[in-house]
Structure formats: structure tokens, C-alpha cells
Specification:
- The protein is an all-beta fold and about 350 residues long.
- It contains no helices and 29 strands.
- It has one domain: Methylamine Dehydrogenase, Chain H (7 Propeller), CATH 2.130.10.
- It comes from Clupea harengus (Atlantic herring).
- One of its GO terms (cellular component) is nucleolus.
- It is found in: Nucleus, Nucleolus.
Length: about 350
């Protein structure tokens, strides 16, 4: 039975590349599907859901592409500065962060900006949405890690970091998250809000991907990809993937094995077959594609049998309406240890229509 995904990569040359990857038995093939030159500066972020692909660039725009209709959806113009990160929540919402410190929530049905949040005083470097949809994390150049309550759209807590973090990522089950600073990975427990493990990578980290709830794939300023066990802090597997530094790593599951996708400055996109055992062996190369461009970002587009967006229920005028609705069967506890309540983010109340005091 055939299997098909789309690999989409962005480049310094302002172009996004799409390759259709097919599997028939043991044979893997990649064919060029599209090239999209919608930006006027290098691409800095790319994200996908089961219908749309969004790309962000230094030209301050987010370009959209409808993979079902194979048409350009236009551009989102709201940020003032480089688009630093993009992440879809389900099929109904897109979150974006930028150099201007803003976090924006977009509804995919009409591509309207539902919320604009002043998330950081400096650049918003990375964001991640909890699997339940209740929480989001963001890090920025103001040396803070911020927790966002997506139920009401407000900032819940701030944790001051020693250095400005580069990446933040929830685990697959949402019970832990990682914060990456240069080559250091700090693993946090959600319930206690404490660092449970610290891992040092040999080189600066540019991309991370959870393959399992406690297995993290790490790539950065060298030629190798490393798989770390977050409970034991052990490097379970290391393999040389490229000749130059690796800019992005992603993955998807096929049958009983994981396919790790890597993109590098050398212009190559490679797919690796990895069995996620207790002691995984170095993966086997399935195929490689030479884009002849300097790649910057990567995503795996996985179409489903039914490409129907799951739009949220009709909403009222409350803040909750505009944000992703959480799963009912998941409960998330926000710990208050080692964090401080953000008091300066709430606007001061002003009295209106106050009666003048009568002079005596």
C-alpha cells in the first residue's frame, strides 16, 4: 500500500520548495511538486497543517498556500519585523511570533487576526502550544520564559532566565517541555516547574523534534543529529547526516518505524529510517534530494483522507472565543514554583463617568 507526504523547505534564496515523497513497498521516491517565490527576503519559518502551509520571512509577511486547492491564499500583514516562528494548533488556528515581540492568533477559516499579544519586550524567538490547547510557551530576547493561558488569552506567569533562550518545545504528552539556550537543553516538569535534567550538546542547537515523549532529536551547527533520552540525559544515538550544519529536523511515523527528515545549508533534504528501540541503532538513509539552495527551515505536510478543517464552535464576545478550545479529557496543572506572576501585563483600570464632588 502506498504512502505519501509532502516535504516543504524554505531557503535563503526566498523560495520554498515542495517535494512529494512516496513509498511503494521498500522503494522511496521524491518528486518536485512546486516552488513558490512569494517572499522578497529569506525564509525564516515554515509550518503546516493537513491543508495549509504557512511560511514566514524577513520581509515581515506570512505567505499562505492551500495544498488542497493548490492555490496561493495570499499574505498576512501584521508583524513589524522578521517572522521568527509559526505553529498551527489543529486545523483551525495559526500562531505566529516575530521580531516585534508580538504573538498573533489567526483563524484559518477567514484568516483574520483574532488576538495580538505583546508577548515580549524584545524579539519573540520561539513559541509552542500545549497538546491540550490550554497553554502556550514563548521565549524571547528579554530573557524571559512566558506561560500563556489560551483559555482567556492572558499571560499567566513569567520566569526570568539567565540568558535569552532560542527554542521552546512541549513534549508529545505535554507533561514536560524543553528550553534551548545555545547548546544547553533544560528539561522542565510541568507540575513542579523545575528543571529535571540538563543536557549539553557539543554545538549550538538550531532545531529540536520530539520523536517520543522522552526522546528528543537535536540538530545544530555541525553535521550530526543526536537522539537524547530526557530521563537519563544520555545520548542514545548519533549519526552524521550532512556535510554542513543542519538547519532543521522533522519526523513522521510509518508503520513501526520513524522517518527523520533533515535539511542543511548544503541544499540537501534527507530522509532517515529509524527504529525507536531502547538503544536505537544509527538510521539508514532512505533518500536524499538536492535543492541546490541554502535551506533554512523545514516542515512535513501530512494530508489526511478528509481535508476538512475542524473549526471551533460559534463563539460569543468573550476572550475565550478567539482561541483554541482545549481537549476536555486532558487536565493541565500550572505550577507556581520558581515563577512570578506577571503583574505589569494587565492594563490599569480607569474610572469613567465619575460624579464630581460637591463643594461644601
Amino acid at each position: 500500500m502506498g504512502f505519501e507526504v509532502e516535504i516543504v523547505a524554505g531557503s535563503y534564496e526566498q523560495i520554498s520548495f515542495g517535494y512529494r515523497v512516496c513509498r511503494n513497498g521498500e522503494d522511496w521516491t521524491a518528486t518536485a511538486d512546486f516552488t513558490h517565490h512569494a517572499h522578497t527576503a529569506c525564509l525564516s519559518a515554515v509550518a503546516s497543517t493537513n491543508r495549509y502551509i504557512a511560511t514566514g520571512s524577513k520581509d515581515e509577511t506570512i505567505q499562505l498556500y492551500d495544498m488542497k486547492k493548490k492555490i496561493d491564499q495570499g499574505a498576512l500583514l501584521h508583524h513589524d519585523g522578521t517572522i521568527s516562528c509559526l505553529e498551527f494548533y489543529g486545523t483551525s488556528h495559526l500562531l505566529s511570533g516575530g521580531e516585534d515581540g508580538l504573538m498573533c492568533v489567526w483563524r484559518t477559516k477567514k484568516w483574520e487576526c483574532l488576538k495580538t499579544i505583546r508577548a515580549h519586550k524584545g524579539q519573540l524567538s520561539s513559541l509552542s502550544v500545549h497538546p491540550s490547547g490550554k497553554l502556550a510557551l514563548s521565549v524571547g530576547t528579554d530573557r524571559t520564559l512566558r506561560t500563556w493561558n489560551l483559555t482567556d488569552g492572558r499571560s499567566a506567569f513569567i520566569k526570568t532566565l539567565k540568558q535569552s533562550a532560542d527554542l521552546v518545545k512541549w513534549s508529545l504528552e505535554g507533561d514536560t517541555y524543553v528550553v534551548v539556550t545555545n547548546n544547553i537543553i533544560d528539561v522542565y516538569n510541568l507540575e513542579t516547574a523545575t528543571v529535571t535534567a540538563t543536557i549539553t550538546n557539543p554545538k549550538r542547537i538550531s532545531s529540536v523534534k520530539f520523536l517520543q515523549n522522552t526522546c528528543l532529536a537535536v540538530a545544530g551547527d555541525d553535521e550530526s543529529v543526536r537522539l537524547y533520552d530526557l530521563t537519563t540525559e544520555r545520548c542514545m544515538c548519533e549519526f552524521k547526516a550532512h556535510e554542513n550544519r543542519i538547519k532543521a529536523v522533522d519526523s513522521f511515523m510509518v508503520d513501526d518505524f520513524c522517518v527523520v527528515v533533515t535539511a542543511s545549508n548544503d541544499g540537501l533534504i534527507k530522509l532517515w529510517k529509524l527504529h525507536l528501540d531502547e538503544d536505537p541503532k544509527p538510521p539508514a538513509l532512505l533518500l536524499e534530494v538536492n535543492t541546490t539552495a541554502r535551506l533554512t527551515c523545514l516542515t512535513v505536510f501530512k494530508p489526511t483522507a478528509e481535508d476538512k478543517p475542524t473549526e471551533e464552535q460559534p463563539t460569543s464576545s468573550t476572550a475565550t472565543e478567539d482561541l483554541p478550545l482545549p481537549s476536555k479529557n486532558k487536565r493541565v496543572r500550572i505550577a507556581t514554583e520558581e515563577v512570578i506572576l506577571e503583574g505589569d501585563c494587565k492594563p490599569k483600570k480607569t474610572k469613567r463617568g465619575g460624579k464630581k464632588r460637591k463643594s461644601q
